[in-house]
Specification:
Length: 57
């Protein structure tokens, strides 16, 4: 269970990022939602394809 937290999908962060995009398109305040998405790991989605699975360790 050493790398379990690193292998999960950041669902909450992605939800906040989607909400930030929706609020941006509506013209409302979206910065707070983008910051929350960042804090909850939503931007980690963009690096999922580049992550090493750690099989060699």
């Amino acid at each position: 269970m050493d790398g379990v937290a690193k292998k999960g999908f950041p669902v909450v962060g992605v939800i906040f990022l989607i909400l930030a995009v929706v609020k941006f398109l509506q013209g409302d305040d979206w910065v707070v939602w983008a910051i929350l998405g960042f804090l909850f790991g939503g931007f980690g989605v963009f690096g999922l394809a580049k992550r090493d699975d750690g099989a060699g360790q």
